[in-house]
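ok trying again, last paste got cut off:
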Amino acid sequence: MKRIFNKSKFIGPSFNGWMKLLIIGLVLSIVTVFLLQFAMHFQVWGRLNYQSTDIPVALDFVRQYMMRSQALYSILACLTLFIFIVVLVNHLFMGVAIYSLTAIVAIVAEYMKMKTRNEPIIFSDMSEVTAVSGLTKMVDKDLLVAAVAGIVILLVLAVGLELYIRRKKVGKFSESVQSMMFKQAGSRLVVLIVTFLMLATPFVVNADQNRAILNHFGYQWQNKIGVDDAMVNGPIMTFVSNISSVIMREPAGYSAKEMAHLQKKYTQYADKLNETRQDNLKGQTVISILSESLTNPDDVPNLAYKGPDAYKNIDAIKDKAVISGKMLSSGHGGGTANIEYMTIAGLPLATFAPEMAVPYTQVVPFAHKTPILPSLFDKREVLHPYAGMFYNRRDAYKDMGIQKFYTTDGLTYKYPDKYTGKLSSRAEYPTDENAYKFLLDKVDTTNNKDSQFLQLMTMQNHLPYSAKEYPNSPYKMKEPAVSNSTKDQIETYITGVHQTDLATKKLIAKVEKIKRPITMVFYGDHWPVVFTFVDQNKQMQTSHETDYFIYQNAAARKMNKSKLQHDERPYASPSDFPALALKATNSKLTPFFALQTKFVDELPALANYTRDTFVDEQGHKLNTKDLTSKQKKLLHEFMLVQYDITAGNHYLDDSFTDNQ
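nice, full thing came through this time. structure:
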């Protein structure tokens, strides 16, 4: 008697075969979810007191998560993916291998991103797939090698078992495997369609519908930073919650009539401000310098080190600058592109929807207008001593009107090799000093009347911070007690900061002598990842504070006679910089930048690392409910304008945003 799985009328796996397949998938799914969550918890950051490099402690955190309803969602998602893959290839061992390969890549990538930035992977990170060559330079090489070796072994084993099954068509093992596979296309197609639709649902429903599905499994949205969300809900739920693209939700009172009112109101306000401003950007240069991972080591709680003052020159420059203070970064160890976006667009992250994680990929391609500070200038160029494919920058810059983007992998605009020298043979990235040389070469020192905007994003102090990266470093960490590995990284980081400090002093000295009026906005984008002993729960604001200053050379000070007071903005959001730069240059304003100026003048600084939070001039935290009624009205008007130009119906006409 022929076995049932050989009968031509067989339409799918037998009941026992289905049970076996589901059990295999369930085991693999549970292991996948367990390891993904372990990647969250087996970290040195100490976030939410749920991270530890003590394996038993980290495993206990994972055990607690696996008992929650959010884990069930993640397991079902993995099981659905497993069934889809196995049925698609219709070979058990190849299906298991492909699923396991996918899981290994996800687990390793999740662990690496958590290790470097303490952020889970979100949907917008998928845009970085094309930048894999650059990303691998920033990750744990040993872990990468182990992962690749594991994948190769898996594939070889799967191919071997499939060949064995094909040759040995009889026998209990072969029959058991074949009983789990499909013999008829119709039933196989049904299962493929059902599982595909289940997997595709988060990609086709809107954000609110997606959130409603997650809520059925106990999803608890965390409104501060993504790692909190991943700790509570798991990285799969966090990933799914960010799939649906929402730029902003419609503010109350949004209508054509209200936007016409705001157009008139801020056109009149711009006219009023412009009565005392001169249209004097012609012949001037404005420079924006994003200093990668730069913060003052002396501001790090409990850190003590031996060696020369690593930050004395920047401190001195801040004292002489037109304005200086602390910038409230949205990131910690990462998020550079988001901070950069805010500094040129003047739109805070905190007033976008929580699902909007990366403006260059989620806002710029879809926004009606992106009225950025550089758009006011005749020449608009960006310099970056690294690859340019990250965060969709190339396309985003084109959409925003940047004329030239110089990168080390650039084709049309190649970052010159002569400016890519490093501090040592062990260093990963070009020095700030060399980056400054290229910047100065780009400054137009002739007598022409073109206005010029230059943006430089440096790389010298980007992770990783390898031990002994800078030989003969004079810095030794004294306190607190940390592992030797962390100690080495911190000493490397402080050495890099010292080199930035020296290079910035030289830059200012050279800028001061240039006859062309130059205004420079300088800021550290976020803290580095090395200060793992700082409890972010207790030091949330401190660990998101970096230094900023706006400096003008003698020619600019003479021309502009800035109305800025030195301590006018002791705490600033990155989105404040366009208004502050235009005030420093005493430049005429469009209605859009007039609104930004009013926002900066009358509201405390937005803390973009969280929601509904401001920081006043004394450094005290405020919530929206603590604002005056006048301030709340201004905030609401700002959000109406932000919504209209990014996600709304574009009721405001071009004269609101365009330079006239």
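cool. Confidence is low (pLDDT under 50) at residues 1-10. The CA atoms of residues 501 and 544 lie 20 Å apart.
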